[in-house]
Amino acid sequence: MTSTAAISPLNSELAAKKETMHCPVMVPEVLDGLSLRPGGVYVDATLGLGGHTEAILLKCPEIKMVLGLDCDTEALEQAESRLSPFGDRVRFIHSNFIHLHDVLLFNRIGRVDGILMDLGISTFHLENSRRGFSFSRNEPLDMRMDPSGAVTAADMVNKLPLKRLTELIQTYGGERWAKRIAKRIYDRRKTAPILNSTELAEVVANSIPRKYHPRRIHPATRTFQALRIAVNREMDNLKEALDSLPSCLRPEGRVCIISFHSLEDRLVKIAFREDNRLQPLTKKPLVPSPEEMRSNPRARSAKLRIAQYIEPGETQFKLI
Ligand SMILES: C[S@@+](CC[C@H](N)C(=O)[O-])C[C@H]1O[C@@H](n2cnc3c(N)ncnc32)[C@H](O)[C@@H]1O
After folding, report:
1. pLDDT above 80 (res 69)
2. Quick check: CB of 304 below 6 Å from ligand 1?
C-alpha cells in the first residue's frame, strides 16, 4: 500500500476523460445510509473517480476525513484532481480493500464511523483505461483493475485448461453457452493466441447460434464479466473484506455496499445475516429510483445493503 501524494494531474487527458465521467450511483441512499456526523472519519474503499466521496464531503463539510482507497493508480490520480478542493480532508491510498484493517492501523486511525464499498469497475475502466474491459473497443486483453496484478485476461483466455475456462464463464458470467464458448476459444488459440478485446468478442459471438444472441446485451457481455471477475479475484476479495469489516468500525459505525450482480449481493447478504456484529439495516437491498435507472443505465443492476456494527454483547434492535 502506498500513498499517491506526488502524482501529477494529467490535465489535457483529464479534460477528455471528463466526457465519459463515471456517474456515482444511489448517492442520496448512500449519504443517508452512512449517517454522516460532524467530526467523523469515513472510508471510501472503492474511491474510483471520487464521486461518492465528493458527495459525502459536500453533504457534511464538518467531516474530519475521508480515506479513499483504490487498487487502480490511474483512478486515484483522477480522484486526487477532482477532490483537491477538499485539501487534506481526503487521503488517497493505493491499496486493495482487503488490506483495510492494516491501512487504518498504518494511518493511525483505528476504527471509523462508516465504510462505503461501490463494487466493480467504473465508466473510466470501460471507456478510457485501454485495458480491454469493453467488447466494443479494440484494446489489449488485460482487464486488471490494478495494473500490477499478476494475471491478465489474455493469460486466462490463452492458458487456462478447457474445463477451468468453462467453469469460470459459467460461474461468474451465468452464461448458458459457456461450454461452446470455452471450446471455441480453446480451438482458436491453438492457431494463434487471442490478444485483444475485439478478437475475443468475435470468437464469443460466433460460438453462440445467431438465433440465441441476447436481444438487449452484446453476446460477449457475460464472458467479459466472468473474465473481469476472475482476473481481479473479485469474489475472494469481497469475502475477505467482509470478514474484516467489523474490526474496522466503531460501535454503530455504518457500512454501505453497492453490488452489481447477484453473486456479490449474495455474499453481502450472507455476511450481514451470519456475522452478529453486523446488524443489517435493510431487510431487502435498496435499488435505485426509476429516475436514476432512466438517467444512468449503469445504475440498473445496483443493489445497496446497509449494516451497522454492534459491539459484541450489545442488544440489536429492529429497523426498517
Ligand atoms: C464502481 S467504481 C467506484 C466509483 C466511485 N464510487 C465514484 O463515485 O467515482 C469501483 C472502484 O473500485 C476499485 N476497486 C475494485 N475492487 C477493488 C479492491 N478490491 N480494492 C480496492 N479498489 C477496488 C476499482 O478500481 C474502481 O475504481
Report:
1. yes
2. no
